[in-house]
Amino acid sequence: MTVTSKMNSVSRQSVLSRLGPGGLLYAANKIIAVASGKEEERWRGKDEGVLFKRWRRTPSTNETAPVVPAPTTPPSQPSDLLKFLAINALELSAPASDALLKSRSSEWFQLSGHPGSLAPAGPGTVWKRRAAGDHPAHNPERDAYEALAACPHMRSAIPRYYRELEYGGEHFIELQDLLHGFRDPHVMDIKMGTRTFLEDEVCNARARQDLYEKMVRLDPNAPTESEHAARAITKLRYMQFREQRSSSAEQGFRIEAVKLPGQPPLTDLQKVREPHQLAATIARFLGDDERARLAIVARLHEIRDLFERSEFFRSHEIVGSSIFIIYDNERVGAWLIDFAKTRRVPEDIVVNHRAPWSQGNHEEGFLYGLDRLINIIETASLSQKSNETTKEPDVTR
């Protein structure tokens, strides 16, 4: 396909309306690359059938690409170039594929969650696909991000929220790429709460054979005698069994994934459930970096304080959300992410996020888990304690 025919297939207005902050920055850099005759690699997802342009960080600490002088004779008129580059930016912003995630493993990656739910939208932003099963007119995660972005107590504790958009018949929200600007960082994704399923997910009391078979595959000794005899269990029984297999039920959080510099992500952490195992995993994550430990603890204290002061959290259950922690040699950051299962509680219900859950009280144990997470990080024995005086790190929000 020629450049001209490709440009004519999409109007300038429809293209520009889709570009977010990251896409505009990418398009500006793309102008320089095209004008100078440089070509970039193309990546095609195995299933998505969409071309991706790969952007690379420069070796310097500067966040933007170096300016390359444009040739005296541009290859096309500015208006044509703008449309062409905007389309290229849109292709980069399309839904992610496994091939893209792997190809950008040193720059951006998804530690856990549903593969393909995130896509880079240019330097500094990502698109997140709406959760499967959500009604087209109902997007709980969008609603939560919009409310928290408007809350003076919470906007600094979450990724920056830009907008909701539609692309290729699917709906996305555009968020800050939390990994942008870090250099080969340590990353940890921690799922918060003693309950990570919604109450309406387990309201059906019908016993199911498929859930019994799942339980037996995970632990043949888990079913009771009556459950073995019936060869069926309820959804609530299975979900609570799953929580008890990790540290969620007892500690109020579980470590979903860890990424250390130069190593592949660790995601098979379901058996890390006892306090000493959690402490050892966190100590491995921190290494001997006392500076990072102190900054992370301070940031988690701040998030907890903001959470407790927020009117939004007084009226919502926060199910399945995570704390995302990142640090490198220069910067430390921690954010509250993932709100696809955040729901407003009934008006006659008061939640404190620490009380035990029982059907109908909407408690999820978020703060119960955060209290314990802070304590474990504070008391974990690092491989060696630095006696040198280090300057205060740049705590990123």
Can you put this structure into words, describing what you see?
The chain has 397 residues and is an alpha+beta fold. The chain has helices spanning 3-8, 12-18, 21-35, 78-92, 98-103, 140-149, 209-218, 225-230, 235-245, 248-251, 275-286, 290-309, 311-314, 366-379, and strands spanning 42-44, 51-53, 118-120, 125-129, 161-167, 170-176, 186-192, 253-259, 316-319, 322-327, 331-337, 341-344, 394-396. Strands 8-7-10-11-13 form a five-stranded mixed sheet. The protein has a four-stranded antiparallel sheet with strand order 3-4-6-5, with helices on both faces. Strands 1-2 form a two-stranded antiparallel sheet. α2 (12-18) crosses α4 (78-92) and α3 (21-35) crosses α4 (78-92). Residues 1-18, 25-109 and 384-390 have low confidence and may be disordered.
Which key terms come to mind for this protein?
397 residues, alpha+beta, five-stranded mixed beta sheet, four-stranded antiparallel beta sheet, 14 helices, 35% helix, 17% strand, EC 2.7.-.-, IPK_sf, IPK, Kinase
